[in-house]
Each structure stands twice: as structure tokens, then as C-alpha cells.
Amino acid sequence: MKKLLKPFEPILNKSLDGMESFIHSHKKAHFLFGALFGAFDGLLRNPKETTQTQPFLRNNYDVKRFMGAVLVALIFGWVLPATYFFGWQCVVTKLLVSFIIGVFVVDVLWAIIAREDHISEGGFVSCILIPAILPPQSPLWLVGLGAALAILFRNVLGGVGNNLVNPAIMSRLFLTICFPSLLVTGYQTPFVGMPDLHSFRYGLDAVTHATPLAAFKLSGETPSVLSLLLGTTNGSLGETCRLTLILSGLWLIKMKVVNWRIPVSYLGSVFILSVFFTLISGKSAAPPLFQLFSGGLILGAFFMATDPITATYNQTAKWIYGAGCGFITILIRNFTTLPEGVMYSILLMNLLAVPIQSFMVKIKYRT
Amino acid sequence: MFKGKNNNSAEFNGGFNLLEAYPVRFCNIIEKVASDGAPETFAFSAPGQNVEHVIVNLCPTEPWSLPNWTILEHKTVVFLDKLKEIRSRYLSHAKFYLAISISEGDRIPVIKEYANRETWLEISVLDAKYPQDEPTMFAKVILGMDIGFGQDTSTQGILILDAQTISAIYESCIMGNNVDARFIAVSGSGLKENEIIHVQLGTTVEKILTDRVREAGKRRVFVNGPLRGREITDFSRKIDWSVNNIVVMEEKDYKILFPMFKSSELTQTTNLLGEKRQCVYCNFCDDICPVELEPALYYHSYRRGEKHRARFYNLERCIECGLCSFICPSKLELLQIIKECKNPDKNS
Lengths: 367, 348
Prior knowledge:
The complex is a heterodimer. By secondary structure, chain A is an all-alpha fold. In chain A, about 65% of the residues lie in helices and about 0% in strands.
């Protein structure tokens, strides 16, 4: 790879330098394209800043790699399995719409209007999550609107590093309120078997069915754990194949991008509480393993509740945060008319993360 | 009973194994460098009666620091005999602790056998992760004592000596020879070759570096390592006994295409290796902190303009190892912020 790129390097370097000096010397060009060029340049080249204070040696790990690891994990976690189960036309177009509207339109426009000096790479993570938490048959405009809202929410709250709630979930909540009918229908049945050209493109032909959680609310029937794990039951585009989600989540834990305390406490509290409720109320409460592997719980526990910016910083507080998510999820699933509670639980705990954090700091340092 | 004995695992959380991350290989031919003027001589004043614990540091944690083999060679027992002689002459009532890196392999059984015979000597085999060789960490891991950072350890009855100082004490005080030179490790990406040199005290840095640095490109020079050491710009500075190593790093203050395929070109340079961003609360800094602090709390206090609040969060326990700044993916200057919060009046 290195040898292959070698002949292009001097030309590319020269043209990038030329563009940079042009943008910096023209005020209008800088105003319009400064942030965009900075983001593009940042993908290809390392910055030229050097260490000015102790320590003078820095680790080769930056936010770009941090976010890149999440992107890679999500591609293996939901994009590839969803392509098999629902067809590439469904997945790729939604991803394209989400990225183009979210990152290349809304974020770039925001950077121009708000005079930001850079475009954050965190936008890609929010935008890859948007199609994952919408039904497979949701229209493209809904995906685009979701991505736009997510990026807008995040930027209004101060950008990456200051957002109070997970932008992707916030936008999902907004869509749930505005278009309730679109978010309870369109759960296409996944394709199972040897893929041919037709199924690889379209998946199964538009057979929709209630999600396992909704079906349980109605009739009390539960699918097998294996089918939930492999992803042959229906659900949102990115939440069905739990096996790959768990594997890529574990990889992120190994890479230290995801803090293991949150998935462990979240899934653990869901399991313990559902065991408790099945013991008390018998068949009217969902069984523990069905609770764990249904709905968006795995996706939420590994990829959304663990968003480090919206979770608590203190390590002990992460246990409370994760357990709180599990508690609210079980409460909503068992005692309300809503079939799924992961979205609300993560949103609520995102808001509670700030008081939990300051409370734990107070206890730890006795201030 | 003393708890660090024969313990093969490190006893503090956090830390970072620099020796694995940045391997430095030295040429094993040792060159001599003579100073132009009259060399200074090594002087040792006998410690007072209050020294109870002597820690012998054979556990360098930074890859660019002087390796043990330059002093010990294949004569570990001879070195231990020297130690015994020094003890009987100056520190007869003190207990000696030998902190040795686990990577020393062949030397450990020899030393263990020796320590079994001698009651005054204890051996601790330590994982050589940075900053194990910081006095505070030594006292905590080996003695189980809490001493503050930046204090003179001798007031607490602890004396920490490295291998080279021990052989110099032996040469000058017991054999009566004049010690006027010491070994220094010279390494880094800005040099032609990583070397160990035997330098007369009082030699200027300039003299050492001429003919050793690469001609092309900018470079920066650090004495005692880029993490804890200081940058020097005045090359007429003379070498004294406190200089353990000199690191010359390439400056790399320009953009390089496709850095993901050229990681070897950029490591061990002064480049930041990433763009400055806001704190993303990734927990890297408190995971790596050897004294279990939460550096991001200081950053947020500082950013809100409440430097004084940082002191509520155990700030005084910080040993200024710089690992939080080293690991931060957002490239925040955490150590600088900590230093400013420690002395809010001085720097504001």
C-alpha cells in the first residue's frame, strides 16, 4: 500500500499545500471552505503541531482513531449482517442518505454559519447509528431527517464533548413523537437462506410483521433465543443480528473504546430484574433471556449507552448509570403499554448522568 | 513481613510499559568522551543516621534510560559485594531493598540466591512499567509507605540509589579513586545511532552531540528523557552527575501524507500525532494514572476558570509523570494544567 501510494505523494502534497495557502489567504474562501478543507486534509495528513510542554512524547492515538474504531465495529456489527438480511439496496441507500445529509450538508453548513474551525469526526458515528435504529422499511426522507436532527441537536448543545444526550437517540425520540405511525410499521421480515441476486438486493419482498417485543405484548409468544441471537426475527435495521453486535462490542471493549462497566451493569441489571419479575408475576413478565436478546438492548448497551460523552466520567458512577438504564428498560417493558424502553432509558440516564457524576465526585473526594 | 518480597506483579494500577511500546536498542561498544577543560569529580557525602531504608534502583522504566548491563555487565555478584561494603561502612543500620526489573532474566536468580544468604538485603522483582522508578512509587510498592511527591526522600529515612551511583561511591570513597566520568545513554530519532558513552563530567552537550546527530531536519534535545526530563536549548550546558540520558528527537513540524501507513516514521518524534479536540471523557487518563487520580476533572475545573477547585480532587497526590498528557486522544495539555492548578498564583 505504501509503495502504491508513493508516486502520488509529491503531487498530492503539493496540491494540498496549494489549496491550504489559498484558503488561508482568501478570507471568503476560508469562511466557506476552511472547516471542510480542514476535515479532508485531516483525513489524509497528520497535523503539524508539535509538543510544547512536558511530556514531549505523545501517544499515537487520537480522537479520529477512537471514532474510527466505533465505525469499524458498527460496520461489522450491523451494516454487513443487515445487508444479508434486508438486501444492500435498503442498507446502502440509507447509509448514504444519512451520511450526506447529516455530515456533508448539516454539519458543513453549521460549521460555516457558526464559524467552527473544524468538522467533528463524531458525526459519522451518529449518522451510522440513525438507520440502525429505524425500521427497515422506513422511507429515505425519514432517515435524512433523523440524521439532520441528530447533528443539529448535537451542534446546538455545543458539539462533540458538550452534548448532554446521545444525538442519535434524541433524534429517534423526535421522530417517534412526530411520525408515530412510521416507527411502529415497516418491520420487514429478514431473509433467511442462500442469497440469490434478488434477495441480496431487496431481501424478502416486503413482508412485515410485529417485532418480537410488540408480539409479546399482544399475545405473549416468544421466539427462540437462537433466532433472536442470529437475527432472523424482525426489528430495527441494525438491532436484529445480536451475535455480531456482541462480538464487535467485545472488540471495542478490548480496544478500550467502550468501557466494560456499562454493558456489564446494563445487561446484568436487565437480567437480574427480569428474573425477579418472572419469579413474582410468572408468565405475564417476559422471560430473562428473551428480555436480553430482544429489541435494541444489545445495540443500546454496547454502542449507545457507552457513548463516553453522555455517560458519566467517574468509573464507579458508570455502574450506577448502567444499572439505572437496565432498571428503566425493565420498568417500561413490563409495566407500560410501550413494547420497547431502551431508547427512553438511555435518554433518561443521559440526563441523570450529570447529577450522578457530581454526586459520586462529592462522595469520593468529600468536597 | 515485608510484602513486596518476590512479588512478580506490579502493585499499582495504571502505568504504561514504555519499554514495549518504544523499544530502543543500544550499540554495545562504549565510546569515551573527554571534556575539554578540567573534569569535575564525583562527590559523595555520607548520609545521616536517620536513613532506614535504602532502595537500589535496578529497574529503569524508560527505554532511553541507561540500561543495567552497562554497570553490572556479567559481574552481578561483584556489584552486590560492593553494596555490602558500602553498607558496612556508611549505612550499617539500614535495610537494603533491591528493585529489579522482571525483564532482567538471568540476573534475578543470582541476586535471589545472594539475598537468601544476606539478611540485610531484600529483593523485589518489579514489572518495569513507567513510572515505577519514581521515588513515590518505589516507597509505595516496596515499603508500603506514602510519601508525597516532590519531597526530599531522605527526610523520610529513604535513600534511593541507582547502580551507577553505587559503583561511583565504591570507587571514590572505598577504593579512593577519583571518579570524574559517567555513563550516559544517548538515543533518539534525531541521531545516527543509539549509543552509550562514557563522559567526563563537565563536558558540554554540544561536544557530545557533534558528529552524532543526523544532518537533515530539525531536532530537539531532552535531558533525562522526553517524559520527565527537560528540554535544553543551550547546548553549552555541562554534563553533571544527575544526567542519566540524552534524547534527541526529530521535530517533524510538517504535515505527512497518509500517516496511518507510516506510524514508524512518526513515533518518537515531537509531533502531537493527532488533532487537538475537546475532552471526550474516554477515561484513558484515569485508567493510566498510577496514583488513581482523575485528570479530566482538573481539565474541566480549569476550563471553567476554577483552578482552585482542582485542589479538592487530591491534586497534591499527582506525581507529574505526564502519562495523562501522553495518552490523551484529544491531545489536551493535562500535565501543564495540573501544574498550573497546583500553583494558581504563580502562572496566572
